[in-house]
């Protein structure tokens, strides 16, 4: 789809605001240099953001002979964005100011039996009630929600959540009715929200071609080009975990055989450890922690498991490198956090045997070290983007 002048202006607006959030206080001149935009363009965008209540002037600095330069910062005392991370075992809700700093949070645990939309929404509503009671009169500008599975972002529908057996659930409508909030609600899945979080406040800020490999119970790749999340025609871009590396391999939960997820998703990792003689007991997180400890202790079954998984991960990641040719690959997800010390070095050692030389040399590999909840942060950033877009004033104001 061809970009309109408004699309371009909004992309520039996001770029300016991302740098401002990361480096405040700063000036229009520095923002122009960091974003490769003209000072005039940045000045116009900043004027719009000030009028929208998103940015404020916080002082002046000496310009080296000319008039003092105004210093800018996000309006941290203004409205808040809500980011909600919905997983199979918990709901975590975080409220962010316009600097994307957490100002409040609440968490609700969910039992394995709580799988209906009404039960999940009930936990979100309970967490929201806690946070709203502490926010006082601060306005909520938007709510972003990350749901497992496939999400139709246009209609706000959970198309398919396999662990809950959801099909075409009108989640946004149901949640909006329950919360009784007159603000927009934005839905997406963790793959997309983590990638947006990386763009706004992670290693992906300022990167032209970004790939985020997310290793968890499921496996996927978030893609972003030119600072914008790439969704594809049906919001299905990034289903890297369901690309095939061995047609004769084990069956994946998607129904196909030999998918990358069937080798490097959490259930597959623990299955292989069990087959090699390990002790994959307890919950997934408990078992993964036990595997990491066994590897640290040098237990042969654990070492062999890590090496085997690293080989599969390298083969799958090489396919992505060869196809997309990214500048940066970020490894993320709870499996990366739990097993990364063992898995990542082995993966990096094996990657050169599978990837072409040029894309391998061009790509920087990083492991996410953020301690904050990147799913909730990305969901809130989606709501922030939606807030700026919904106001329909950025770039529309006539200038004399």
From TrEMBL:
PROSITE patterns: ROK. Keywords: Kinase, Transferase. One of its GO terms (molecular function) is kinase activity. SUPFAM superfamilies: Actin-like ATPase domain, Winged helix' DNA-binding domain. Gene3D superfamilies: 3.30.420.40, Winged helix-like DNA-binding domain superfamily/Winged helix DNA-binding domain (1.10.10.10). It comes from the Bacteria. Pfam families: HTH_24, ROK. InterPro entries: ATPase_NBD (IPR043129), ROK (IPR000600), ROK_cs (IPR049874), WH-like_DNA-bd_sf (IPR036388), WH_DNA-bd_sf (IPR036390). Belongs to the ROK (NagC/XylR) family. This is Sugar kinase of the NBD/HSP70 family, may contain an N-terminal HTH domain. It comes from Glycomyces sambucus.
């Amino acid at each position: 789809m061809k970009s309109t002048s408004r699309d371009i202006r909004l992309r520039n607006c996001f770029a300016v605001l991302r740098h401002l959030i990361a480096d405040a206080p700063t000036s229009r001149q520095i923002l122009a240099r960091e974003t490769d935009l003209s000072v005039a363009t940045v000045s116009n965008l900043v004027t719009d953001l000030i009028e929208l209540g998103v940015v404020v002037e916080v002082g002046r600095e000496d310009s080296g002979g000319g008039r003092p330069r105004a210093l800018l910062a996000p309006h941290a005392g203004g409205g808040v964005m809500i980011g909600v991370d919905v997983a199979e075992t918990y709901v975590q809700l975080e409220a962010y100011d316009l600097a994307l700093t957490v100002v409040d949070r609440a968490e609700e645990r969910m039992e394995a039996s709580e799988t209906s939309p009404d039960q999940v929404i009930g936990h979100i509503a309970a967490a929201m009630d806690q946070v709203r009671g502490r926010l006082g009169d601060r306005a909520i500008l938007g709510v972003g929600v990350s749901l497992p599975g496939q999400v139709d972002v246009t209609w706000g529908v959970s198309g398919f959540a396999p662990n809950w057996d959801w099909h075409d659930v009108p989640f946004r409508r149901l949640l909006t009715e329950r919360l009784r909030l007159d603000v927009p609600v934005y839905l997406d899945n963790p793959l997309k929200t983590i990638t947006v979080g990386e763009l706004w406040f992670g290693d992906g800020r300022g990167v032209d071609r970004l790939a985020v490999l997310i290793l968890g119970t499921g496996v996927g790749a978030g893609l972003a080009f030119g600072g914008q999340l790439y969704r594809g025609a049906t919001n299905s871009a990034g289903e890297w975990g369901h690309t095939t590396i061995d047609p004769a391999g084990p069956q994946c939960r998607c129904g196909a055989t030999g998918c990358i997820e069937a080798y490097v998703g959490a259930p597959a990792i623990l299955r292989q450890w069990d087959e090699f003689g390990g002790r994959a007991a307890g919950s997934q997180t408990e078992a993964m922690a036990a595997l990491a400890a066994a590897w640290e202790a040098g237990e042969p079954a654990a070492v062999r498991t890590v090496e085997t998984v690293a080989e599969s991960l390298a083969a799958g990641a090489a396919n992505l490198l060869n196809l997309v040719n990214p500048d940066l690959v970020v490894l993320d997800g709870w499996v990366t956090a739990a097993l990364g010390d063992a898995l990542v070095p082995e993966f990096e050692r094996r990657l050169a045997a599978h990837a072409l030389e040029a894309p391998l040399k061009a790509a920087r590999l990083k492991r996410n070290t953020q301690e904050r909840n990147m799913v909730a942060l990305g969901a809130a950033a989606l709501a922030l983007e939606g807030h700026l877009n919904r106001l329909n004033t950025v770039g529309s104001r006539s200038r004399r």
